[in-house]
Amino acid sequence: MRRWLMLLLVLLMPFAALAQDAPLAVIEAALADLNAQLGSSLTLDMVDNWTWDQEDFNDASLGCPQPDQMYAQVITRGYIITFTQDGTTYDYRTSADGSALFLCDVTQGEATPEATAESGATLIPAGEVISTENAAQLAIIGQIEGSFAAVMDYSPTGNTIAVAGLTVPDSASGDTPAVLVYNANDLTEAPQELLPGAEPVLSMTYVPTSAGASLVTGGMRGTVAIFPVEPQGFDILFMQAPAVVESVVDVAASPDGTVIASVNNALLSSAVAEPGVYLWDASTGEQTLFLPLDSAPMSVAFSPDGLLAVGDVAGTIHLWDLSSIGIPAESATLQGHTDAVRDLQFSPDGGVLASASMDGTARLWSVTGEPEDYRQSAVLESGEPVLALDFSPDGLLLVSAGGSSDDEDATNAVSIWSVSDAVSVAGEGELVAVLTGHTDAVGSIAFSPDGTLLASIGGDGVLRLWGLNPGDAAVG
Known about the structure:
- The chain is mostly beta strands.
- The chain has one helix at residues 24-38, and strands at residues 2-3, 10-11, 49-57, 76-85, 88-95, 100-108, 139-145, 148-154, 160-165, 178-183, 192-194, 201-208, 213-219, 224-230, 237-238, 247-253, 259-265, 276-281, 287-292, 297-302, 307-312, 317-321, 330-334, 341-346, 352-357, 361-366, 375-381, 386-391, 397-402, 414-418, 430-435, 442-447, 453-458, 462-467.
- The longest helix is centred in the first third of the chain and has 15 residues, at 24-38.
- It starts with a strand and ends in a 9-residue tail after the last strand.
């Protein structure tokens, strides 16, 4: 199965004297780029198989044109270089003088996890908006069973769903971590694949753009990157971080898409070197600010009106007002949770902050007025760790999800709450529906932008879509 992946234009030193029968310099340059992407140190004698072929191409695209790209319409001599390793073939293209080198295509020996009719996938039918009145009628209208982590996000356009796949590389089988981008309207369609530097992805969020949407990812080894997804592109931007070993456990984008926030936790080391929040320029990748914390952060979110919220491992929520000029100071802290805050979401109008915690609760906080006026307005009891949250587009529903991989009695349920009154009158919120079926903890949950669909993904490797118009789709 062939798919377009990253087209990484790499300017190299020209190779003026290439032997026509053995372009060894460009072959080794291509292998060096492959090693950089896979995080490997392969040599030519270690690769399972490799080939090269000289060709005169009709234009400067070297036989690998990309959407919305212009190329000089001249005969261009170049090479096709392929490497096959652990069942996957990497197709490189290079100009004859070595001035341009890029990865054109990747062909996997084993099929990428795809939806099938038997697994409940279907062309997603148009549905009714999910509301307090009909949430109890939700049914599974599509699902994909694959090698997924419980990390997912729904595009703001409603056209795609991104899922973290192959998250634990196995050196014996050669599995390479990837982000799989599915057509949200037809799960049977083969997904795009994004290779985030051969690094397992632990967090992701979409960013609206003038043309569609990009995807921000946070990796296990500290990498933060932005991938053009709608439309698919190849101008990938990596945040210019110093050497960081802590894993990026959450990322968020400002409402205008100009600032990326990331938080790190010590999944690969004994302690976070410097706990805090990194802020990045989304156009250049440069770090613009670092906001220090006393304890390791776990979650981060932007409000529509300039607030930045960060939840830490101790259960505290920290708030900064980024709308003011100059270096922001922490404006408020919210106390109530007794364990790590795993997710944060602002309501669409920015007046309410929802928090999910390992303490078994989701909480609502009123964040209007002055910082001294911020208060807890509702506690939503789950009874098991809450890992993920999302508001419906109209802000009247909150969905929470979680569970446990270690507790065989965990329900791993998706709960839907009516929160229209809970934000104005302190209370517990009204539980209007509970969706079950995941057999492991649900780590990500998201409404479609029009509010007609709900996506969930668990540690069981199953991505599910819930809706009100199941049609002929299999349910179960």
